[in-house]
Design brief:
- The chain is an alpha+beta fold.
- Among the domains are: 119 residues; 44 residues, Ribbon (Seminal Fluid Protein  PDC-109 (Domain B)); 48 residues, Carbohydrate-binding module superfamily 5/12 (Seminal Fluid Protein  PDC-109 (Domain B)); 47 residues, Seminal Fluid Protein  PDC-109 (Domain B).
- The protein is built from 5 helices and 18 strands.
- Strands 1-2-3-4 form a 4-stranded mixed sheet, with no helix packed on it. Strands 8-9-10-11 form a 4-stranded mixed sheet, with no helix packed on it. A 4-stranded mixed sheet has the order 12-13-14-15, with no helix packed on it.
- Strand 17 and strand 18 form a beta hairpin.
- Helix 1 packs antiparallel against helix 3.
- The chain is elongated, with a radius of gyration of 57 Å.
Length: 454
């Protein structure tokens, strides 16, 4: 019930009570029935000449009531007076209650307005949001629902942490595993790529599978065009680099004498200036400084006297240079120490150094000098030889026949292609994650270049 309806209901009840009180305040009508000898009630008009006091002006006191003769009319008058006083007290109480109720209704209306204001200011309600399978690397918010091991969880706050945990509430748990179904029929063998069909006019390579079907075609024209552009760019960069290097070397040859003269003059001027300042007593002689050693970098120009670390040794520049240490522009200050270097299985095309350790046919050898040649030889020292083969053990008993294998997986299909630009080969990636035989494209690309007249 709303406050307005409650107020109207109280006003109606008060109105009905006031109406009832006005009707009760009217003078009572004398009864029409006649009194008999055995009647208990004595009416006013039946009193025979008795002096009945008039209490209309002022109600009798308690002493007067005790002293007055007890007659029927007196009892009726007293009861009527008490009824009037009771009705007045009830009316006053109801008026007080009505005012109190109106005040409480007013207070409730104010509180209702405050609640409406708070409701309007509340943030919009959030609803659960499905986030799929739980990922520990994903950030989740409050009311996010995730699945984990067949069960569903809902986050109780933002950034709830690991699931399950104290900040996650279980929504639905994983049901029990059902009974095992009937064994399905054995699937057919998976088809593999048997060969390639190349359309040289459209530059399309189509894989032919072992079951005779054709796989997804591979469009090669765009690949060849991009490879041609890459080759032209590399050739242009290489040519530009060679020309820039020649011009740089030529410029260095021209200005190197002037740079040496300038450096010599600067050193001489600095020495003269320092000597004059020391003689004048302006400053104490400079303390001894140790040279700074830097790691050699290919793109850096080093000046005379610079010391660098290169290939485990220490080198000092004899003049301004951009060449690598080991040339005539450098002098070696310290050579690297020698230690055993494990090089793995021997490779005939490998470049081996002194103390390099390699393995051949299960035996280990160490190089006695740089570039020792084929292994084993006089330039190699045997470290550990391969052990002899042991005696053959007795033949074991034939094992029990194993259970029949499960149904084979569906035949994989080509999902995408992996292109190696360096070797011009395209390898198919199957739907099961395996790789098919690579498709060599260099010959087709050379044909493409010849057709373009390049």
């Amino acid at each position: 019930m709303s406050p307005d309806e409650l107020r109207a209901h109280i006003d109606q009840a008060c109105h009905e009570h006031d109406k009832f009180m006005r009707e009760q305040a009217r003078p009572a009508q004398a009864p029409v029935q006649k009194s008999g000898p055995g009647d208990v009630v004595i009416y006013r008009e039946h009193v025979n000449g008795a002096d009945v006091p008039d209490y209309a002006a002022e109600p009798p006191s308690e002493d007067e009531l005790m002293a007055a003769p007890v007659t029927g009319a007196l009892l009726v008058e007293t009861i009527a007076q008490l009824q009037i006083e009771l009705d007045d007290a009830i009316a006053r109480e109801l008026r007080g209650l009505r005012e109190e109720l109106r005040a409480k209704i007013k207070q409730l209306e104010l509180e209702l307005d405050e609640l409406k204001t708070e409701l309007r200011n509340l943030p919009p309600a959030r609803s659960p949001r499905m986030r799929g399978t739980f990922n520990p690397n994903t950030e989740y918010g409050q009311l996010d629902v995730v699945a984990l091991n067949g069960s569903s969880f809902i986050a109780l706050r933002d950034v709830p942490g690991a699931c399950p945990g104290a900040n996650w509430q279980l929504v639905a748990s994983c049901g029990r595993r059902g009974s095992k179904g009937k064994r399905g029929e054995r699937g057919r063998a998976a088809a593999s790529i048997a060969s390639w069909r190349i359309d040289r006019s459209s530059y399309v390579a189509t894989p032919i599978l072992s079951d005779g079907s054709a796989g997804a075609p591979l469009q090669l024209r765009e690949l060849f065009h991009r490879g041609h552009v890459d080759i032209e760019r590399e050739v242009l960069i290489e040519s530009f680099g060679e020309a820039l290097g020649m011009a740089r070397n030529k410029l260095l040859d021209q200005i190197e004498p002037q740079l040496q003269k300038i450096n010599a003059l600067e050193l001489k001027l600095a020495e003269l200036t320092g000597t004059i300042d020391v003689l004048r007593g302006l400053q104490p002689p400079p303390p001894a400084k140790f040279p700074t050693i830097r790691v050699w970098s290919e793109d850096t120009i080093y000046h005379e006297g610079d010391i660098v670390a290169f290939a485990g040794g220490t080198w000092q520049a004899l003049r301004d240079t951009a060449r690598a240490p080991g040339a005539q522009d450098w002098v070696c200050l310290a050579t690297p120490g020698n230690s055993l270097t494990v090089r793995g299985t021997y490779d005939g095309d490998g470049d081996y150094r002194c103390l390099g350790v390699t393995m051949v046919n299960g035996s280990s050898f160490i190089a006695l000098r740089d570039r020792p040649g084929p292994c084993p030889s006089s330039d190699w020292q045997l470290l550990a030889s391969r052990g002899s083969r042991g005696d053959r053990g007795p033949k074991g008993e034939r094992g029990l026949t194993g259970p029949r294998g499960e149904c084979g997986a569906a035949a994989p299909t080509i999902r995408t292609w992996e292109v190696e630009r360096a070797s011009y080969a395209a390898t198919p990636i199957m739907s099961d994650g395996s790789k098919g035989p690579p498709l060599e494209l260099r010959a087709l690309f050379e044909q493409f270049l010849s057709e373009r007249g390049e």
